[in-house]
């Protein structure tokens, strides 16, 4: 028969064994977790995929690189926060977000939309958005997606600069008041020497808008849209359309 002291000693030994077992199991778990972490983060390990909507500016490889990783895609090595921050810092991006799906990182991008080309220094051209933010610079006009605004120069602008001259701000305000369909039909906007604006449409005749100081007024955009909607499906042979006054005037050929 065990004495009280022997029973206490036996309980202490059992307690020590249980404690030692827990420590060994915990150590084994830590080792397994460490090996697993090293395994999934090693170069060449692939897990998951990255998709993007709302833009064609960035390839899958670009997104992985912006997230601090490299191909093949490994979501364990790719930082969603870093990726979103890098996208938002790109001047061409208005907003960006990312969310996880089943083994996929879904990236949503909202691009800034260019509205005008402007002449820059050294025979270059800049592409600006609705706020006058310079999105791109090139030695020429790369496409006809947006019209050229001639007769005005923005100096020596760089990507990320904002053009704030009244002649540009007023015309951008006018452009924002137009539908995408109407904007797509504008080939060129001209600032005449007398500081009046002329819009040259792709299908021929010019539209006279009046002083550049008045072009930014909402009423001018509304008047343009009224005439555009009225004439867009008609084959009008006009010499020009005058919108300098409240009532439009169409000069026929």
Fold and architecture overview:
With 253 residues, the protein is an alpha/beta fold. The chain folds into two domains: 49-111, Ubiquitin-like (UB roll); 114-252, Rossmann fold. It has seven helices and twelve strands. It has helices at 4-41, 60-66, 80-88, 166-176, 180-184, 212-215, 218-231; strands spanning 49-53, 93-100, 104-111, 114-119, 125-129, 134-138, 148-153, 186-191, 196-201, 206-211, 238-242, 249-252. It has a nine-stranded mixed β-sheet with strand order 6-5-4-7-8-9-10-11-12. The protein has a three-stranded mixed β-sheet with strand order 1-3-2, covered by helices on one side. Strand 8 and strand 9 (196-201) form a beta hairpin. The radius of gyration is 32 Å and the shape is rod-shaped.
What's the number of domains?
2
Shape: rod-shaped
Helix content: 25-40%
Number of strands: 12
- The poorly predicted ranges are none
The CATH architecture term of the largest domain is 3-Layer(aba) Sandwich
Quaternary structure state of the chains depicted: single chain
Written as H for each helix and E for each strand, in order along the chain, the element string is: HEHHEEEEEEHHEEEHHEE
The CATH top-level class label of the largest domain: Alpha Beta
Summed up, the helix count is 7
Give a summary of the structure in a few sentences.
The protein is α/β, with parallel strands linked by helices and 253 residues long. Helices cover 35% and strands 28% of the residues.
Topology:
Elements: H1 4-41, E1 49-53, H2 60-66, H3 80-88, E2 93-100, E3 104-111, E4 114-119, E5 125-129, E6 134-138, E7 148-153, H4 166-176, H5 180-184, E8 186-191, E9 196-201, E10 206-211, H6 212-215, H7 218-231, E11 238-242, E12 249-252
Parallel strand pairs: 1-3, 4-7, 7-8, 10-11
Antiparallel strand pairs: 2-3, 4-5, 5-6, 8-9, 9-10, 11-12
